[in-house]
Design brief:
By secondary structure, the protein is of the alpha/beta class. It has a single domain, classed as P-loop containing nucleotide triphosphate hydrolases (Rossmann fold). It has helices at residues 46-54, 80-86, 98-101, 108-120, 124-137, 143-146, 156-168, 186-203, 214-220, 238-243, 248-255, 269-275, and strands at residues 4-15, 18-30, 35-39, 61-64, 67-70, 73-74, 91-94, 174-178, 206-211, 223-228, 231-237. It is globular. The two termini are 32 Å apart. The relative contact order is 0.16. One of its GO terms (biological process) is transmembrane transport. One of its GO terms (molecular function) is ATP binding.
Length: 279
């Protein structure tokens, strides 16, 4: 049985022009210890899908699914309190833009310790000691001193490491990383990805990696889901996807990789899909 199993996920937003269907019938599953990449261009519904699972979308969103279970438990029928007990503890998420995701009004130590207080009941010295341990695990130098720092006093890479520390604080069974290297330079991107993969292997977590970078997919994933315009285009193990892509959209993504550049104009996705009778 899959750790997370979602069938026919739909997310619609109420707008002035009427309902807007952002996610249209997505199926996603991930097993324990597996790395699943969800890939697609911006606006394809990758983040919205997972925010719907986390219950973090605004009231204007309507989330439905034929099935949404975590470890066999139905997330759709849980009470709000039951779901809060799982989200943040058993399922955790690293968000885009670490500088915007951390609260600028509180020290990073306070924000890490708040997670420990809410989910594990740790307080005082115990919470502080655990926060120091977490900052050490994610490679923050002088962790005792850094607990007193505010987000603006840290670099983007350091803030992302703090976000990772918060996400792994309760030793989740599933970690969702939403474009975890956005706005970071290339060197820091590799460091963050290497850290995530090391933590995943060490802790045996399932990892869902949301990205538009096919190079990252090739280096990290066991299995890949490709999304486009709110729909799942295909799903395959990573080797099959790269060697035998099954849709025009996936081939367009692969053709856009720098190493595949020919100097010629690439056809648009719509042109490719129309040529193959896909929509």
């Amino acid at each position: 049985m899959a750790l997370l199993d979602i069938r026919n996920l739909r997310v619609a937003f109420d707008t002035a022009a009427g309902p807007f269907l952002a996610v249209d019938g997505i199926d996603v599953s991930v097993d324990s210890r597996e790395v699943l990449a969800i890939v697609g261009e911006s606006g394809s519904g990758k983040s919205v899908s997972m925010l719907g699972v986390m219950g973090l979308l605004p009231d204007s969103a309507t989330v439905t699914a034929d099935r949404m279970t975590f470890d066999g438990r139905d997330l759709m029928t849980m009470t709000a309190a039951e779901r809060r007990a799982i989200i943040g503890r058993d399922i955790a998420m690293i968000f885009q833009e670490p500088m915007a995701s951390l609260n600028p009004s509180f020290t990073v130590g306070f924000q890490i310790e708040e997670v420990l207080r809410q989910h594990l009941g740790l307080k005082g010295r115990a919470a502080r000691a655990r926060a120091v341990e977490l900052l050490t695990q994610v490679g923050i130098p002088e962790p005792e001193t850094r607990l007193g720092s505010y987000p603006h006093q840290m670099s983007g890479g350091q803030c992302q490491r703090v976000m990772i520390a918060m996400a792994i604080a309760c030793e989740p069974r599933l970690l969702i990383a939403d474009e975890p290297t956005t706005a970071l330079d290339v060197t820091i991107q590799k460091q963050i990805l290497d850290l995530l993969m090391a933590l995943q292997a060490e802790r045996g977590m399932a990892l869902i990696l949301i990205t538009h970078d096919m190079g990252v997919v090739a280096e990290t994933a066991d299995r890949v889901v490709v999304q486009y315009r709110g729909r799942k285009m295909e799903e395959a193990d990573v080797l099959t996807l790269f060697e035998h892509p099954g849709t025009a959209y996936t081939r367009a993504l692969l053709a856009a990789l720098p190493e595949n550049a020919t100097g010629e104009r690439l056809p648009t996705v719509d042109e490719l899909m129309a040529a193959e009778g896909q929509s």
